[in-house]
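Subject: Predicted fold for PepSY domain-containing protein, 68 residues

User T.R. writes:
Posting the sequence so we have a shared reference for the thread.
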Amino acid sequence: MNWNKWIRQVHRWLALAFTVAIIANVAAMVQEKQAAWVGLLALLPLILLLLTGLYMFMLPYAAKWRSG
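User M.O. replies:
I've generated the structure tokens; pasting them so everyone works from the same file.
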């Protein structure tokens, strides 16, 4: 598997982890047992999603720059 496919696959799994973290956050809010760590639980996948998303966004532009 090449690097770009690996990043794309990681991005997909991070999206799933982010969705689960948001569902856990909403469930904690409904139970009114809001803990600080539950709110922060979604930040790690969100930051990694941002980085992998920006990488994939820049791929076409990088290819254009390399080709001249």
